[in-house]
Amino acid sequence: MNIIFYHPFFEAKQWLSGIESRLPSAKIRQWRRGDTQPADYALVWQPPHEMLARRVDLKGIFALGAGVDAILDQERRYPGTLPTGVPLVRLEDSGMSVQMQEYVVANVLRYFRRMDEYQLQQQQKMWQPLEPHQHDNFTVGILGAGVLGKSVAHKLAEFGFTVRCWSRTPKQIDGVTSFAGNEKLPAFLQGTQLLINLLPNTPETVGILNQSLFSQLNNRAYVINIARGAHLLERDLLAAMRAGKIAAATLDVFAEEPLPPMHPFWTHPRITITPHIAAITLPEAAMDQVVANIHAIEAGRVPAGLVDVVRGY
């Protein structure tokens, strides 16, 4: 079994030795430009077009993250990047669910207890108790009900929040109100006080966080974007905040990363920025999942995280 590996910033040595220890019979190498030698599996993140094109003998391509939008974007720009009929598999969880729960809980509680506003008051040496939010008027809405969305929804429900989810297709989540399909999006947005975006990045979801969507939320709503920067129309968010429709936002992902030094988000008093760290790939857990999926494919089973390339997730 031959495996090729490419990642623009992961240390290759850790992955090569980790996969070798889990699959002693496999030969794994770091892919470099010009490498056209045979391969059965490819482990990749943002691979160059020539790495995968024409490799019709691949049994599987593993994206080393929860999203596959970078690969699918390349396929749209350069048809043939993905060899026809070769399964594309993304990571499911591999330690990311807990990280997402931690990030979301920290920020939801920060807004719910108005700690962001008290921090601003501290800077002004202002001593002023604020009217606390109440659970019965602080509905949390989650866009996206995949593995990560469900995990976050369950954790927030444990804190007593009323939680609702919206997804493209119907999903059942215990203790959570579910909405599905474009026709149900307005009903999902109405009454939502804090919106969390965990949607996959597809042509249908690009720019979904826009003025029209913000206008349907509760007044003085909060927004947390931890999916992709392409989901957010940045000018629309700034306009909604100037108008007072959006009270504050926490953003972990951006249209351009790193965020340019002169970007207005840096100095906005009600926007919190983190550098795409809400949930990162944990190599050991990810390698366990990749190897388990290789065993599944070798045994003729469907791997966990198989991507529908038409839907984009």
Automatic annotation (TrEMBL):
* Annotated keywords: Cytoplasm, NAD, NADP, Oxidoreductase
Enumerate the spans annotated as D-isomer specific 2-hydroxyacid dehydrogenase NAD-binding domain.
Answer: 106-278
SUPFAM superfamilies from the entry?
Answer: NAD(P)-binding Rossmann-fold domains
Q: State the Gene Ontology terms under molecular function.
A: glyoxylate reductase (NADPH) activity; hydroxypyruvate reductase [NAD(P)H] activity; NAD binding
Task: Quote the InterPro entries the UniProt record gives.
Answer: D-isomer_DH_NAD-bd, GhrA_Enterobacterales, NAD(P)-bd_dom_sf
Q: Which CDD domains match?
A: GDH_like_2
Reaction(s) catalysed by this chain's protein? (R)-glycerate + NAD(+) = 3-hydroxypyruvate + NADH + H(+); (R)-glycerate + NADP(+) = 3-hydroxypyruvate + NADPH + H(+); glycolate + NADP(+) = glyoxylate + NADPH + H(+)
Instruction: Name the catalytic site residues.
Output: 228, 276
- The lineage's top-level taxon is Bacteria
Cite the EC number.
1.1.1.79, 1.1.1.81
The yes or no answer to whether the keyword Nucleus is present is no
Report the GO terms under cellular component: cytoplasm
- Principal localization reads cytoplasm
Subcellular location as annotated: Cytoplasm
Q: Does the keyword Nucleotide-binding apply?
A: no
Give the UniProt family note. Belongs to the D-isomer specific 2-hydroxyacid dehydrogenase family. GhrA subfamily.
Q: Which NCBIfam families match?
A: PRK15469.1
* HAMAP family per the UniProt record, alphabetical: 2_Hacid_dh_C_GhrA
**Function of this protein?**
Catalyzes the NADPH-dependent reduction of glyoxylate and hydroxypyruvate into glycolate and glycerate, respectively.
Please state what the protein is called: Glyoxylate/hydroxypyruvate reductase A
Name the species this protein comes from: Yersinia intermedia
The gene designation is ghrA
